Amino acid sequence: MRICVSALMVTTQPGMKLAGVGRHMFAVLNELTITDLGHQFDVFIRSDVKMPEHWRECPWVTWHPISITSSKQRVWWEHFKIGQEAMRLKADLVLSLFLALPVFCKIPMVVFAHDAFPRTHPEWYPPRKRIILDQLTAFACKKSKAVVTGSEFSKEELAQAYKSLPNKIFVTPYGLGNDIHLLTDEELGQVDMAKFNAEQYILSVGTIEPRKNLDGLIRGFDILKRDPRMKDLKLLIAGAKGWLDSSVGTTWSASPAKDDIEFLGYVSDLELNVLMQRARAFALTSFVEGFGLPPLEAMTVGTSVIVSKTSSLPEVCGEFAFYCDPTSDESIAKAMTDALTDEVRRKTYMEGGFTRVKDFSWHHSVKKLEIALQFAVN
Question: Mean pLDDT for the chain?
């Protein structure tokens, strides 16, 4: 089968676009160059993407680097030109790594759609962004032969919100968003922790946007800091600014613990790996997550995980996380306290987490993607 891949949103540039969705697209593309599914792929990608050498050498992938100088040009390619190219190449299938599909293309199409949040939680987006994402998702669910998403939670939400047939939505759980692994003492020493001004800390990672509930995390941390045992503890928040983030600044300004809260912005992959491994605990107190890559990464390096007991997060973490109610500051504070002080559960969850993360890999994800590809053409 010959498959045209729309990958013009893939980037290797640091920042918000290299957050969860960006890392997912890169990882899928990387795995397609490693796992031979028996197909020929024509991949349309930005010419400024720094491709690993093994990508260029992959015999079943032909690269079509496109010089993109504006968002309008990218949209033109995604919605029109790639469809024309797919027909010219006599492709059997078009695969879009993120929502956008060619409008007039009659070739069967498969699309990745991570969530239904623009429709289920419109208040979390600036109006223009919400409208665009909602329309893209609606069109993708209607036009495609198969929709691929990361969790059973997202499958159910997409089916209900966009009136899409559940049997055309395929769940392919993701792997790690970053190359995070247990580091040796020598590797840990490559990052000067003095720049982060913290020895004992809870780490949180994610784009700063409303659904991440950083306001609740900060308020929960305020409660935690009332415990004398936590006087030296800090909260480090890594991640690029997203949208509607002003409330986080307001909450931080009003926090009695604000001197112990640091916003790190974007950090490098090595820095993230070290920060994850050295953290006392990792916290993701989002209201909802379509999948949630960072908890997997924390579990990979044996760090205790604090997550919301909502949406897809229990699917990811299983019984090996300290759960909280993201709408309750007290619940968040209690989960933090337990993660930091309950040594029996900490050890049990750490050992169980090491086993659980083995169930999540990009190899398994791409193998399940193959089921959706075959469904789309049969």
Answer: 94
Closest CA to 83 of 73, 72, 71, 95: 95
Backbone region of residue 183 per phi and psi (left: phi > 0; alpha: psi in -120 to 50; beta: other values) = beta
Q: Residues 112-171: pLDDT tens digits?
A: 999 999 999 999 999 999 999 999 999 999 999 999 999 999 999 999 999 999 999 999
**Topology adopted by domain 185-359:** Rossmann fold (3.40.50)
Task: Report pLDDT digits (tens) over 314-330.
Answer: 999 999 999 999 999 99
Among candidates 376, 378, 359, 369, which has minimal Cα distance to 176?
Answer: 359
For the chain, percent of residues with pLDDT exceeding 90: 85
Amino acid identity for residue 116 in this structure: A
pTM (two decimals): 0.91
Give the pLDDT mean for 46-51.
94
Number of Cβ within a 10 Å radius of residue 128: 8
CATH superfamily of 2-175+361-377: Glycogen Phosphorylase B; (3.40.50.2000)
CATH 3.40.50.2000 residue spans of the chain: 2-175+361-377, 185-359
Burial profile 329-345: b = 16 or more Cβ within 10 angstroms, e = fewer: bebbbbbbbbbbeeeee
